[in-house]
Design a protein that fits this description.
Two copies of one chain form a homodimer. By secondary structure, chain A is an alpha+beta fold. The first copy, chain A, has a single domain, classed as Alpha-Beta Plaits, CATH 3.30.70.240. Chain A is about 30% helix and about 35% strand. Chain A has a four-stranded antiparallel β-sheet with strand order 2-3-1-4, covered by helices on one side. At the A-B interface, strand 1, helix 2, strand 4 and strand 5 of A face strand 1, helix 2, strand 4 and strand 5 of B. Chains A, B: Its cofactor is Mg(2+). Chains A, B: It holds the Pfam family CRISPR_Cas2. Chains A, B: Keywords: Antiviral defense, Endonuclease, Hydrolase, Magnesium, Metal-binding, Nuclease.
Chain lengths: ~90, ~90
């Protein structure tokens, strides 16, 4: 399946969340990851994220599309690269 | 159709982009809007956004799902509210 994960977490946990998501998905934009993933890997990823975030203040949104053909992505402006984060 | 729009734009344009997107979609999370929209309204929204952003440095990603039934959204942690932005 194809997933988009967006997150809005406290600053002190952004690095950890980002690092964890990089193990499973592609960095797409600030606070946005996407990519194809199996159900098992997604469950594993979410369990590990759950150990990182504070469920009372942090927010992770998971959008799942079973068939990637049903999702169309268009980029306006530039396609950000992970390196933009460090410049 | 159902759309998710994520944006990564220079700070000085965030307010304008956010304000414009609010006219068409629901604020979902920092830099993320979502909702049902007609093709015509989406075209109009994108044209107006194009007048706001700098295509050389800003980035807007549009994810379109023709049938909302093909998209499943799950929230982990808390569902952010637009008011969180001002607290």
């Amino acid at each position: 399946m194809f997933v988009i994960i967006t997150y809005d977490v406290e600053r002190k946990r952004v690095g950890k969340v980002c690092k964890k998501l990089r193990e499973y998905l592609d960095w797409s934009q600030n606070s946005v990851f996407e990519g194809e993933i199996t159900k098992g890997k997604l469950t594993q990823c979410l369990a590990e994220l759950n150990n990182i975030i504070d469920n009372n203040v942090d927010s992770i949104y998971l959008y799942q599309v079973s068939n990637p053909k049903n999702l169309k992505k268009t980029v306006y402006g530039i396609a950000k690269s992970p390196m933009d984060w460090f410049l």
